[in-house]
Specification:
Layout lengths: L50 E2 L6 E2 L3 E3 L9 H14 L3 E3 L8 H9 L8 E6 L14 H15 L4 E6 L8 H13 L3 E7 L3 H14 L6 E3 L13 H8 L2 E2 L24 H4 L1 H6 L3 H16 L4 H10 L8 E2 L4 H8 L8 H8 L20
Bound molecules: NADP nicotinamide-adenine-dinucleotide phosphate.
The site of NADP nicotinamide-adenine-dinucleotide phosphate has 30 residues, from strand 10 and helix 11.
Length: 373
Amino acid sequence: MFTHPVLTPFAGLARKPRPRASVWCDRRYTFQTCQHSNPRQTNDRITMKFRILGRTGVQVSPLCFGTMSFGGDADEKASAAMYRACRDTGINFYDTANQYSSGRSEQILGELIQGHREELVLATKCANPTGRDINARGLSRRHITRAAEDSLKRLKTDRVEVFYLHQPDPATPLEESMRALEDLVRAGKILYPAISNHSAWQTQQAIDIQKAHGWAALQAVQPMYNLVKRQAEVEILPMAEANGLSVLPYSPAAGGVLSGKYSQQEKPTIGRLYSNPRYKDRYGEAWVHETAANFAAFCKNRGVHPVSMAVAWVGAHPAVTAPVIGARSVEQLQASLDSLKIDMTPALRAELSALSRTPPPATDRLEEVIQPK
Ligand SMILES: NC(=O)c1ccc[n+]([C@@H]2O[C@H](COP(=O)([O-])OP(=O)(O)OC[C@H]3O[C@@H](n4cnc5c(N)ncnc54)[C@H](OP(=O)(O)O)[C@@H]3O)[C@@H](O)[C@H]2O)c1
């Protein structure tokens, strides 16, 4: 077991009581608690509590389905099956990016949403290269505008609700990018600007630029956040709470590391940590795998799939609106969907947090967050 249990989980964050049922005054929850809005209900054991996206009034499911695997790890048939499973569970929130499988993810999602587009909240992203041209990338107004228009064509829709700057572009002043988002909002092509993979100070700068000009405000951030990647707790999550932003964390199962499969005797023959060197590096530290093994053992003792527990742990942070889940098959996906059945009490979450490293506070004054013995 990892030895950092002296730190309080969520050190420095004001704890808010988590409403259990119908509470309309908490911006994260709707006034209504219901099974779900989708009449094609097949899993009546899952109760879907919709939440409010940022300060928009738009209601989103407490899980967002990320379609990064569409057109890559998942072919069209597997993608359609996962999409159906999400719809049947009541998920109305879907995430993609222009970069995923070079646009195939958006195309496949665009086909699947036909006939019920108005029941969905769609998010896509731009910044990563879309071609060999020197300007087919980044966050210039030139590229953002073209990227958004191309995404709408692939998604076969006239607008997306959430549009992210996928990652920072050091070559472009932030004001240029925020103006481009404002113009897209005014043109009705995107509804809510959002940011992913930016630091808290960069996000705050973006917010301040928008405020100074009276431009449409950011409504969401999409940071990486899971039991072995907790840096977001230090600055990003408190910044989001302070600004009323939704937090939609990606990789809640650490790209599969928290499934425990990489620490088993019989290692799997396929998996992102084998096929993607970036993920191998990202999750390469020995303590990460040690933590994943301890976490998997903890879950096994309680008869819960580790991916279900990992997603529930992310979703239970007070600042989080909805984890963005991912899978390559319906079988894998089911574990993430089952996270909705877990009652992640503060005590259980603290127990799980203690298996991992709690990041030091922004001030590095460790003595202020050590639990009294
Ligand atoms: N903004 C960004 O920069 C960014 C970055 C990454 C992702 N995202 C978004 O977030 C979504 C989710 O991210 P993610 O895919 O990294 O989430 P994740 O839930 O941490 O990882 C999903 C991966 O874990 C493995 N997995 C999932 N369930 C499993 C199970 N039951 N048993 C064994 N392995 C399992 C599968 O990979 P293998 O089968 O390959 O092991 C699956 O593709 C993406 O689809 C995308 O929309 C955004």
